[in-house]
Amino acid sequence: MAINKWCIIFLAATIAALSTPATAKLFTVGDDKGWTLNFDYQAWAKDKIFVVGDKLVFKYAAGKHNVFRVNGTVFQECIIPPINEALTSGYDVITLATPGRKWYICGVGKHCEYGMKLFINVLPQSYPSPPPPPPPSVYPAPSGNVFVVGDDKGWTLNFDYQAWAMGKKFYVGDKLVFRYPKGIHNVFRVDGTSFQQCIIPAAYEALTSGYDVIALQTPGRKWYICGVGKHCQMGLKLFINVLPYPTYVPPPYHGTRKLAPPS
Predict the structure, then answer these.
(1) Are 64 and 204 in contact (CB under 8 A)?
(2) Is pLDDT at 102 greater than 70 in this prediction?
(3) Cα Rg for the chain, rounded, in angstroms?
(4) Contacts 24+ apart (CB under 8 A), 84-93
(5) What share of the chain is helix, strand, coil (3-state, %, to 5)?
(6) How confident is the model at residue 8 (pLDDT cuts 50, 70, 90)?
(7) Whole-number Å distance between alpha carbons of 57 and 90
(8) Which of 62, 117, 228, 239 is most exposed by smallest CB count within 10 Å?
(9) How far apart are CA 88 and CA 107, in angstroms?
(10) What is the rounded CA–CA span in Å between residue 17 and residue 261?
C-alpha cells in the first residue's frame, strides 16, 4: 500500500509539472517606473517575448490610475469602457492565457491620449526554437530624435515656437523635451480647439516636472500649451505635425520559445 501511495504522489507531481509552463515569466510593466504617465510603454515592450502562461503586473498608486483590457479599435481611439471593467487594485496581475494581440489602457482622465497604453503580442507555448533575430543592418530600427523645445531658450515666454518648429520634421518615435523652471510654467497636451482658444484643461492633466519628455507615439497633429496664468494667450504654445516613420517595417515574428523538458 505504501508503494502505491508514493507512486500516486509521484504521478500527480509529474502531471502538475507537465501542465504548468516551465518557463513562465513575470513582467512588471514599466519595470521600476511602473504604470504611470510620461513613459514609453511600446519602447519597453519592444524587445520582450511574451508567451502564454506569462504574467503582467501593473503597479501604480491605487486611485491615481487603472487598467482596462481592450481591443485594437478602443486602444487606437482611447475609448474608455464602463468603469466596472477596470482593474483598480494598484497591483493588477494579468495572466496571458491565450496567444494573440493584447491591448491595455489607463482610463483615468486623458491618460490614454497621453500615451499611457500598452500593446503586446503573445506567442503560443511550443517546443520549437525561435529563429535568430535578423542582423541590424537588414532591419534598421528607427532611433528617434530628441527635440528640446525652444533649444537653449527652453519653454518660456517671449519666444516664437512656430518659427522654432518650422523646417523641422517630427516622426513617430521622436521625443519632445519641455525644459523650464519648475513651478513657473507647465505643459498641457490639448486638441486644436483648446489650442486656438487657450482653453486650460483640468490641473491634474498638466505636466509639471520642469523636464517633461513626451514620446511622439502616433502620427498626426499635436498641440501643446502652457496653462499658467495667461501664458497661452501670450504665445506659450506649440503646434507640430508628426509624420509616420517612412521606411521601417518590423519583420513578422513566427517563432516560439523553447521550453525546457520537465524535470
Answers:
(1) no
(2) yes
(3) 23
(4) 87/58, 88/62, 88/63, 89/62, 90/59, 90/60, 90/61, 90/62, 90/63, 91/57, 91/58, 91/59, 92/57, 92/58, 92/67, 93/55, 93/56, 93/57
(5) 20, 25, 55
(6) low
(7) 9
(8) 62
(9) 10
(10) 10
**In the block, residue with C-alpha cell 512588471:** 28
Q: How many CB atoms lie within 10 A of CB 212?
A: 22
Residue 125: all three cell numbers together: 507555448
pLDDT for residue 200 is more than 60 = yes
Q: Please give the model's pTM, rounded to 2 decimal places.
A: 0.45
State residue 212 phi and psi, 5-degree precision.
-95, 120
- If one compares 245 and 57, the residue with the highest pLDDT of the two is 57
Band of residue 75 on the pLDDT scale cut at 50, 70, 90: very high
Element (H, E) at 95: strand 91-95
Q: Amino acid letter at 122?
A: V
Of 135, 136, 113, 138, nearest in space to 220 by CA = 113
